[in-house]
Amino acid sequence: MNNLVNNQHDTNRRNFIKSIIRNFLLLGLAFTSIFLVFKEDDGEECNFDFVCRSCKKSKGCSLPEAKNYRSNKLRV
């Protein structure tokens, strides 16, 4: 009888710890999702790893690297 009570106590403790860990993981996932949805976006994104020479958008691009490329291109 005493062994049965100890097993139930261990099972309850195990389930409690599993539910705590599961809830923390879900909470982290929810916060990450909220952050990604509501983060500010400047609207500019470079798909060419800052290789402005081969980019077709370089004339209207507002990224600092494109501005430096255009200014250096005009000097040369």
Summarize the structure.
With 76 residues, the chain is mostly helical. It has 2 domains: 39 residues; 34 residues, no CATH class. Helix content is 64%, strand content 0%.
Mean of all residue-level pLDDT scores: 77
Number of helices: 2
Query: What is the straight-line distance between the termini?
Result: 90 Å
- Oligomer designation: single chain
Overall geometric form: rod-shaped
Number of DSSP strand runs: 0
Structural descriptors:
76 residues, 2 domains
Walk me through this protein's architecture.
The structure is a single chain. This protein has 76 residues and is an all-alpha fold. It has two domains: 1-39; 43-76, no CATH class. Helix content is 64%, strand content 0%. It has two helices and no strands. It has helices spanning 2-38, 64-75. The chain is rod-shaped, with a radius of gyration of 28 Å. The model has no long low-confidence stretch (mean pLDDT 77).
List the helices and strands and how they pair.
Elements: H1 2-38, H2 64-75
